[in-house]
User: What shape does this take?
Amino acid sequence: GMPAFCRPWQEGGIGFDYRLQMAIADKWIEMLKCSDYDWSMGDVVHTLTNRRYAEACVGYAESHDQALVGDKTIAFWLMDAAMYDSMSVDSQNPAVDRGIALHKMIRLVTLTLGGESYLNFMGNEFGHPEWVDFPRAENAWS
Assistant: This one.
């Protein structure tokens, strides 16, 4: 949508410098809902590189939209409940080790192919475990 937003005003556009590449985050969530053994790297590369010619894009692996509406973050999709008990240095859990490795690879592939810049989701650098919740009465305003 909005194909002229990131074109110079001299060409009839609005003149924004970058466009958010929103399909990337949606693609990762779609893929995380199935086994990673079934992932098609060709499909991933197509989604990450599919953008208009000469239009700079901001790539990101996940966004607040997914975490705010009650969906899971990437880290939670990958490690689920093991995150609560098996994230210490002394703990050995294959699900956590694998989840952290995949989380790093998802961000690396997105960073390298997703656009001319990269947007980091708040908490992403730590593998934010759950959805983001704003302070309200139900969570004791925390």
About this structure: The first strand starts at residue 19 and ends at 20. The radius of gyration is 17 Å. The CA atoms of residues 112 and 118 lie 9 Å apart.
